[in-house]
Amino acid sequence: MTVLAQIASGFSGLILLTLSLLHFYWVFGGSLGKTKTIPADPQGKLAFVPGKAVTALVGILLFTAALCPLCMRVENVLSIPKNVFQYGCYFLSLIFFLRAVGDFKFVGFFKKIKTTIFAQYDTRFYSPLCVFLSFLLFLSACS
To answer: For the chain, percent helix, then strand, then coil, each to nearest 5?
Structure first.
């Protein structure tokens, strides 16, 4: 694995782990930033209201996603072939790229609703982060 791929793997794993922990923070009652992370229409009606179970599931999925690039850095993790993690990184790279493109209504660079607080944060932070993660995960997989 090249040095660049190792750095990309470590950094993408750290970002995904941090996002996972943020979701668990919300599951256990935290509220910091929560109002800026749910899409809404211009009248303020939320696109969906995630419950604790869904938020915990997202946290678990993000934690599992963090394992793919991190396990790329080490050999023979639980006798799982390295190419499983490599394909996982390619898959995650695609998922985060698609998230950055968006659903053409609430999320992504091509969203129609652009005036809400979420939309502003999505344009400035969330979608660029998804492109960055997509790039890092692709670099991790290409090692």
So the answer is: 65, 5, 30
> Do the Cβ atoms of 69 and 89 come closer than 8 Å?
yes
Q: Is the pLDDT of residue 78 over 90?
A: no
- Reference 61, options 5, 20, 100; nearest CA is 20
> pLDDT tens across 105-123, in order?
999 999 999 999 999 999 9
Mean model confidence pLDDT for the chain: 94
Domain, as residue range, for 66: 3-141
Q: Which tokens go with 105?
A: 């209504």
Domain count, the chain: 1
Amino acid symbol at 87:
Y
Please report the DSSP string for 22-60 in residue order: HHHHHHTT--TTGGGSS-B-TTS-BS----HHHHHHHHH
Do 98 and 90 contact (CB within 8 A), yes or no? no
For 15-44, the pLDDT digits (tens) are 999 999 999 999 999 999 988 999 999 998
